Amino acid sequence: MSEKKSGKMAERKERFLTTVDGTEVNRVYTPDDLAGSTPEDIGSPGEYPFTRHIMPTGYRGRLWTMRQYAGFATVEETNKRYKYLYEQGQTGFSVAFHLPTQEGYDSDHPLSTGEVGKCGVTIDSLQDMERLWDGIPLADVSTSMTINATAPIILAMYIAAAEKQGADVTKLRGTVQNDILKEYIARNTYIFSPAPSMRLVTDICSYCSQYMPQWNSISISGYHMREAGATAAQEAGFTLANGIAYVEAMIEKGMDVDYFAPQFSFFFAAYSNVLEEVAKFRALRRMWAGIMKDRFAAKNPRSIMLRYHVQTDGFTLTAQQPLNNIVRVTLQALSAVLGGCQSLHTNSFDEALALPSEQAVQVALRTQQIIAHESGATDTVDPLGGAYYIEWLTSEIEKKAVAYINEIDKMGGALKAIEKGFIQKEIATAAYNHQRAVDSGEQVIVGVNQFVTDDEQLTDILEIGIEVEERQIKRIREMKQKRDNEKVKEVLDKVHTTAVSTENIMPVLVEAVKTYATVGEISNTLRDVFGEYREPSIL
Amino acid sequence: MANKKVRVLIAKPGLDGHDRGVKVVARGLRDAGMEVIYLGLRLTPEQIAEAAIQEDVDVVGLDCLSGAHMALFPRTVGLISEKGGSDILVIGGGIIPKKDIPGLKEAGIAEIFGPGTSIDEIVNFIRNRVGGEVK
């Protein structure tokens, strides 16, 4: 190793970066690095700008919700997994739907071939939704649903299933992801073009404000952009830019910001660079508080505080030496907790290979429980607050993210920036640079480009057989024979009429799903009115 | 160079939307001097096969992370052959369990590139099979 020209002591690398394309880190941080921020910027937990936590007591009051994202095969298998997770100490549910449900196709549609029950649970009609929650009282639990383009239909089914159980719908607790903008950027389960999609998003938000005050009407997500390659600062900037677009769309609908914003929630990723992630979460809280207070003149503290779910980052899991992933997930989960999340999903170590097995899921949940009860990270609020490096990095990420928001503002907002392909290109470039750095060895991935051993793969992985598809197709056909098809036709006509109008779509969808009209049938009715979106392929 | 540029079609069959990997590979092959057509996502095997023939490509790259590869990859290769493209090299990537690989190879997928593959590995594989300079 050669001595640097400056005559300083030799260091291992020329530059130290948080991640590829991330932030350059100095040798040491001192009080001088805090010169740019005032004591008010840091503040106290539970007080504006909430940099340190949204609650004064942090996790001393209440732990985060341990919410494992799960769903596979048919509703019976998933129901069993939910009950298992609940018995193991999970404190909230999180539904993964298979792709046909997410993209508006029934299981018997040709495009669903091979996809049934693979990435999530199969939901074609209210019948499936009822069975999914068999023996689980929806009045007493909190449920998050990762659903976007078909969110109005799936939320309607959840409402109908809860009603059937005798639950008071106004007291239901949970979240519907309902974030279509990031679908065009990264996740790709859109159906309709942006304008009608934004109308559906705002229909859900205003319906929830009116009838479901304890329900998070949207979960504005940075997670998928990060997974697609975004840096921490990009994740922060792009997500809040999308958040601004949703708030503006609701205000345009004539609604007061403090009427709907208390039900807005967020969703972010946690990478293995623990300190950068902690700084990111702190920066995000401070930025959103500023945006809500200054840009939108919100007054209700619940409109101003950034409440969010975190998932550990799937992209960092390796297929090679899969047990190492337990360590990665631990670091990532710790960053989420030190950063002050309200809800957390921990990935399973086998997820670079397949859907998680029961054993792998248990280890993932135990990881959260160990952090909660053994690590000491929950004993004091914002334990890293005040550290020179953390405060400097919090401000640094904020600066970069604000620059992105300003750039997007100049383009005319998030929707315009997406239409121009700006956000997609920024993310694709970061993803490409990461891969080149891994290929060159500049970015070390343990077990992949260094410390490589003979490939050992797990044998005990979960597989979804073709019989799941066959069973579900039989089920949907039988259901269609038994229901009152005249009533279905009538209600679908009503859905069509409402979609054409500017009326809120939700009430008629609740009516429609109760006739056992399917996800595919309702989506097709909406396709007739709204048309379908085809993405420009942006590399 | 007298060699004609290698033409590669990259596409995602099925409903899977994870496109980080496929975009990185497309860009990597382009940087390696190949001509890359990225067809996008949510495509049927029929659409991909049709495009492969029309675009007269040397290579087709398929990608799937949803677990639907066994239903989609063999069908796509079959259709490409049926339409007269039996000389086209078809390769795949995604979350593919090891035990599925022999079946996919038997169906005519030349190679499966899983997580952790470098861009150079794919470039060299293509160059070895369809000609052109090997790095």
Radius of gyration of chain A, Cα only, in angstroms?
Answer: 23 Å
Q: Which two chains share the most extensive interface?
A: A-B, 47 and 35 residues
Low-confidence stretches of chain A: none
User: What is the H level of CATH, i.e. the homologous superfamily of the largest domain in chain A?
Assistant: Methylmalonyl-CoA mutase
What overall geometry of chain B do the principal axes of the alpha carbons give? globular
Spatial gap, N to C terminus of chain A: 38 Å
CATH class of the largest domain in chain A: Alpha Beta
How many extended strands of chain B? 5
Number of helices of chain B: 5
CATH architecture term of chain B: 3-Layer(aba) Sandwich
Question: What is the total domain count of chain A?
Answer: 2
Mean pLDDT of chain B: 94
Question: How much helix, percentage-wise, in residues of chain B?
Answer: 40-55%
SSE pattern of chain A: HEHEHHEHEHHEEHHHEHHEHEHHHHHHHH
Uncertain spans of chain B: none
CATH homologous superfamily label of chain B: Cobalamin-binding domain
Largest pleated sheet of chain A: 9 strands, parallel
Structural class estimated from helices and strands of chain B: alpha/beta
